[in-house]
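# step 3/5: fold
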Amino acid sequence: MDLFLTGLSGLAWTIVYIASIRVGFRDKTYAMPIAALGLNIAWEWIYAIYDLSSAPGAQAYINLAWALADVVILYTFFRYGRAELPKFVTRPIFVAWGVAILATSVTVQLLFIHEFGLVDMRAAKYSAFLQNLLMSGLFIAMFVARRGPRGQSLIIGVAKWIGTLAPTILFGVIEGSTFVLGLGTLCSVFDLGYIGLLLWARQNLALLTTDPTGLTCLREPKAGQPSARELRVVGTPAPFQASGKRDAFGR
């Protein structure tokens, strides 16, 4: 059972990474929230290097493969991520912000190792489930921020859920870790909620084009496209817009 659950988790997370790379390049954005990605890439490189140098095994090479996949996902963040932010966030600021997140992520992982040690991989387990819970919540936040499933996919959501559920059963149920069981259960709650949002979005695309105030959802205009100020308020007469008066939202 241990081998089956470990293999299932490894396969599921591999699918998450491959799908994230594919979706990122397809939609020209990043498919994994940067805070979670930073913790992931730090975790996988640290433990891949440690395992390869101390006790090389299958998991060490799997961690290395995941770490390399994370590098590609990180590339999509630096390549396309600036477009997700307001114009005042210049590219130098954006790059510095990304580097700061990576440095912070490495520091957090090293603090876990210092506090819990590498015996029985406690630091690895505890940090993995905490950052997994963070990722679950940030996927939902990303769906809301982007007002839909752009840069996301049902495959990523389902594979992420399975990839977390398997070690939750292994370490939380079989090995009896209350900490892991509690965090793993919370991950499942958020993951299933995220999957529900993606399924809902498939059936309600029209609702994702207009926000609750009746305003067309705004994005940074591309070359040749009208700016946000040129977009009409849904249901507002054209003469009112042209009059220069402010509407109820102060525009």
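# step 4/5: annotate
The mean pLDDT is 83.
# step 5/5: archive (pending)
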